[in-house]
Write a structure and sequence with these properties.
The complex is a heterodimer of chains A (430) and B (532).
Chain A: H1 26-31, H2 36-43, H3 46-56, H4 68-73, E1 84-89, H5 98-105, H6 107-120, E2 125-130, H7 135-150, E3 166-171, H8 181-188, E4 212-216, H9 217-229, H10 231-234, E5 245-252, E6 258-263, E7 266-267, H11 268-275, E8 285-289, E9 298-299, H12 300-305, E10 307-308, H13 310-315, E11 324-329, H14 334-348, H15 354-371, H16 377-388, H17 398-412, H18 414-429
Parallel strand pairs in A: 1-2, 1-4, 2-3, 5-11
Antiparallel strand pairs in A: 5-6, 7-10, 8-9, 8-11
Chain B: E1 4-9, E2 12-17, H1 22-28, E3 52-55, E4 62-63, E5 74-76, H2 80-96, H3 111-119, E6 135-137, E7 142-145, H4 154-162, E8 168-171, E9 178-181, H5 194-199, E10 205-207, E11 220-225, E12 234-240, E13 243-249, H6 262-266, E14 281-283, E15 289-291, H7 294-308, E16 313-317, H8 323-335, E17 339-343, E18 352-353, E19 361-362, H9 370-376, E20 379-380, H10 391-394, E21 399-403, E22 420-425, E23 437-440, E24 449-452, E25 457-461, H11 474-486, H12 494-504, H13 513-516, E26 521-522
Parallel strand pairs in B: 1-5, 16-17, 16-21, 17-20, 21-22, 22-23
Antiparallel strand pairs in B: 1-2, 3-4, 3-5, 6-7, 7-10, 8-9, 11-12, 12-13, 14-15, 14-23, 18-19, 24-25, 25-26
Helix pairs in contact in B: 2-3, 8-11, 8-12
Chain lengths: 430, 532
Amino acid sequence: MAYPYVSDVEVRVISKYFGDPAHRRIDTYVERGGYKALEKALTLEPDGVTDEIKASGLRGRGGAGFPTGIKWSFMPKEPTRPHYLLCNADESEPGTFKDRELMRWDPHQLIEGCLIGAYAIRAQHVYIYCRGEFFEVNQILARAVEDAYMKGYAGEDILGTGTTIDITIHQGAGAYICGEETGLMSSLEGDRGEPRVKPPFPAAVGVFGMPSTINNVETLAAVPHIVLNGGEWYRQWGTEKSPGTKLFCVSGHVRKPGNYELPLGFPLIDLIENVCGGIRDGNQLKAVIPGGSSVPLINAEDARKCELDYEGCVEVGTMLGCASVIVMDHKADIVKQIRRMVDFYAHESCGQCTPCREGSAWTARILRRIEEGQGTEEDLDTLMGMTEQMVGTTICVLSDSVAAPVQSSINKFRGDYLELIRRGEQAGVA
Amino acid sequence: MAELVTLTIDGQEVSVPRGTTILEAAKKIGKQVPHYCYHPGMSSPAMCRLCLVEVEGAPKSMPSCVTTVMEDQIVHTESKQAVGNREGVLEFYLVNHPLDCPICDMSGECDLQDYVHAEGRAHGRSEEPKRVFGRDDFGGDVLFYGDRCVMCTRCVRFMNEVEQDQRLTVVERGNRSVIDTFFEEGLEGTHWHGNIVDICPVGALVSKEFLYKARAWDLEHTPSICPSCSQGCNIELHTRDNLIQRMKPRENLEVNGWWMCDYGRHNHEWMNRGIQLEDPLVRTLDGATGPVKWRDALDQLLQHVGVIGEGRVKAVATPFASNEDLGALAELVGALGGGDMVYRSVRSEEEIVLKGFPTLARRKDLAPNTSGAELIGFTRVGDDEATGGLEDIATHDGIVIIMGDELSDQAEDFGREAGLFVYLGDRQSPAASNAHFVFPLTTFAEQEGSFTNIARRVQRFSPALEPPGMARPGWLILGALAAELNNGDAPRTAAEAFSGLASQIEAFAGLTYQDIGIRGAVLNETFVLSEC
């Protein structure tokens, strides 16, 4: 058995070399066909590369699922100012651990993707904004970037084509909000990591006030494969609207948690029951958060119907997000889980927008009170009412991320809340 | 002229230049969209989320402070969505706000108080304990009450963008965010930090000087002009019990924007000083001076003039006097046969420019009406300390008239030789002990009048305080004397005094009080910032 767990149904495109330390070395990477896609891309026009990505239907893997090719095409065609490509490697969503693995095992795949992306958007500088806590990853990446420079894949006059693209790795300082694209830019500029109002959008005014494009690690990791094999090739997996493969970070009460690369549209229940070996100890499935802690959670019934692509998740009232599947069995304490998540968001709110700054901390306090048996049924109405005010009223979506788990858990698991409240009331009477 | 965009706000059509924000467009039709973080003089982070309005077709509410207008846009500021949003945001504000209004300096002029009264929930739903930050001394005149802060960051942005001396920042994040200073000295040594107290929408930043002095609703506001330098910042005098309690800037984009310097802001104690001249004093034959009635004093003065004859007048005025006072003095000097007219004023070594609003500076010249004095025909004498330069006058044996200059540097025998020595001022001066007549004048805070600032802008001020005793404005006294001598009509109001000035002095010709209004009027086309 290789890299923690593997499954036969996996389609390993970007995770092919997970578990193989040799692949980190540039020689091995090149031997196995690495940097061929870069060579090919440099023979095309930048727009040709973008067209290929458009044809593949690749969608942003960071959570929003915006079509990558279209995002690239927003960049000015004739640069009058420097362009920047930003790679969002500040992976901090609770439940997500795919980017870390992509960078740990296959750093050159990401670097190649960054170089191709930069070429396509006519940028001469790539910033990889890497989560500060990823010490090992940072070291591996730094080594890989150095090697790429040494071998002439990065820096000035790449492969003798006259193209110049520099890569800088920037280590974050431990703020979830710096994974938000404009927050990341503020942080990169040396300011507090605070999201900015859009418009202007990054393609017009991004980092350092220049046109910028920001992509997730997984998105950029898929780019070399698409460029090398063509957009149509990528469409052999997934659905019409969500083509390709996706890494699913499964955690929680399954027998074999881990990263699994599967075609989009894969049934959620199949992932849990078969790929991950089912629920631990033969327990019953209770709830699933399919896309990281900021998407609504679903109950077992919806989980059985859910297909893991961008549209399929919306059909059951949740979102694919970054495909971090958190599985909970019937022994899970939903209220505690939600309270922990909200605590996290309250701690990570940047503090700019009032609904988020005050609302997230307030929500956390009410939830803790309920968890400690001091809650009332009115608290649930208050929670629903106030989280309503936190949706769509702020600069970024962190506030919405607080509301999603709270609202969905009260809607789907009101009984769990009421039980805690009654237990508390009875204890009070006694 | 920029291209106009027409949109509909709350059913009312309005046309504004392209690039205008919805909030500013709404102002045009008298709609004030509630807001905290937005301030017209600074950048807008759109983070208070109070100014969200409903824009038809937009997927969610838009921050009106940064969303620019679009053709045919339909905006609702009073719709269910917009009002509901404000209600929600205001509730969030109160989750941690201490509601210590009874002991808060801002109470009565607080935006949080006003907005919650207008649109907040009748009963807050939060029962949780509030977070506590306590109080911090920010240095200078500023005290910080962290618990009251609504995190609008106006103060941080003022220091960064307008004063451009980064002294404040936000530390921590989430609801632990708090405004703080970088180093021990805090705001100490900055020259404009008083403004952050003004722009703080709540009682988080308060003035140490004003702390617990007065409730906002007990203060009367009088439009005035700052007398502390030749910039002529538009201000309001806030008074209670016939005392100036504080000075606040009054918006005027042509002069001071929304700001004023700390030097000017705190230089008001002298306006409240108790010991002022209250009666006209006349020296009798035995050398003693005693109080008399105005009519008698003026009659005796005119008799005196009749005895010693006209001519050879030497007049000293202060550039703290209004255009009207200076004009009346000039007219009187003319009526007495002419003579020398001089003024003395204090100059500081350098200008203190507000970097983010560079047309505003604490000027070198620390008097409000030097330009007026020059235009009316007074010449500057003495040094930068406003001392010296009066050697001729001290021993002059003709008529000596001193208006406002306290002669603090002069010897006791000043004016002993004078045939007629008239001293007009708001307080007694030892060097004026030889004066035959001592007339009590009102200060600028006690009278109506106008100053001409460094850019030759004439600006009016109004009386905020009751004059002490029999003190009267200079133009009234001097104007009456000149009228007697010229057989003319004495001015009865400051407006008439100004008209008299306008008919005499070319530079003021044609200008009336109506023209000046509350915003002021520039004297001639050449808008030159002179060195005076």
